[in-house]
């Protein structure tokens, strides 16, 4: 989709959407688009790639409130559907809108005293997510509507474990078994080792399980609801005084802390995960269908190389060695290309995410899904370990942003915007996200989009969140701020 020179930028009210549009005829989306996709017609209706759907909820297995918060999304192409979710911007002094706050299942909803309110706030979850779709909108829409419910349910299990520990020790973080019976007389394999599992590991496990369940749900229901394509997933939650960032794909998250950039995710591309892909192909060569070679070479091997010596690297090698090229080595590489152009089986440029259950190599029946996994990498940031200023922020963005912008450039763009606005300005963080999108989108010149330096601007969807860490601290206070809890990132 080519953007017109008369592109309009429209900021909606908190009960609407924030997006950049190139025309006005489709600007007023009905409220029905918030509902979970249930038919192919609904998928067709939502196929406008400029739309980003945020919802806000908390960790309660019975209720889920849906509200709308600040974010920004832009596209210079037709190639992707990006979905984003922002949950519980509920500090009315820090955000342009307040959100009804619910609690984990089991905590009473009618708490009145200050101590009771603090008890309730302990179990609140703040949730943000970006879903970048490909080959169809179905997987992204499914994740937008369901993933926060799945995470919510699994975090309830974490809460139950923490409350059991606290009932016995008075400290939910203490690595002490909640069971009362003595264990010393049991043989070693039968002893309960839950005492050695810290809180971070419990939350990380909940996120990992939720991601896998989300992918299984898409696979199970993709024919009933015509869920096509796949999507990457970048999720950030604030829970129990910590920030957890779970990433499966090539979207990215960074933190600006007092001028320092802290990476909170890695890009999962075929090159980044080449070792895992090679290992799987080595263990299960039938997945290659005799069409691909799992070995890594420094160049594309051709028929003229047969019989010659060449450097190579196998799945179990960290270094390089020399081998004589055979006919099998001339098959197409399992991973081929450089940088963002690298592809798995000449088809897909990401190796983690949701969906893609029916994705095959072009003009073949070779399925690629066995090489793709939904398992996220989870990094942890302790919100209580540092004092946070108004300009200390979490930046989330789709790969359309990071294709043309480094971490430092994104940080600089955000800081330049924030420094120009008063700390009391309720739109300052939305303005920072807006500037990120504009910087990556560039300016239309000579029938193409260009950055300020004249290089090509992003031709992908661009989504950006800017989240103040000081507000996250207020939204999810740690039960015991004097405790030092291990970081499992």
Write a brief structural summary.
The chain is of the alpha+beta class and 489 residues long. It has nine helices and 21 strands.
Ordered list of secondary-structure elements with their pairings:
Layout: E1 8-11, E2 18-21, H1 40-45, E3 72-74, E4 82-86, H2 114-121, E5 125-134, H3 138-169, H4 199-221, E6 230-239, E7 242-248, E8 252-257, E9 260-263, H5 274-283, E10 292-293, E11 309-312, E12 321-324, E13 332-333, E14 335-336, E15 343-344, E16 354-355, E17 377-382, E18 393-397, H6 399-402, H7 407-419, H8 428-441, E19 443-445, E20 448-450, E21 462-468, H9 469-475
Parallel strand pairs: 10-13
Antiparallel strand pairs: 1-2, 3-21, 4-5, 5-6, 6-7, 6-16, 7-17, 8-9, 8-18, 11-12, 14-15, 18-21, 19-20
Kindly identify the CATH topology of the largest domain: Phosphatase 2c, domain 1
Number of domains: 2
Look at the structure and name the CATH superfamily of the largest domain.
PPM-type phosphatase domain
- Overall mean confidence score, pLDDT: 76
Class from helix and strand fractions: alpha+beta
Percentage of residues in strands: 15-25%
Number of helices: 9
Give start-end ranges of low-pLDDT stretches: 1-70, 75-112, 176-183, 480-489
Alpha carbon gyration radius: 24 Å
C-alpha termini separation: 39 Å
Helix content: 10-25%
Task: Give the overall form.
Answer: globular
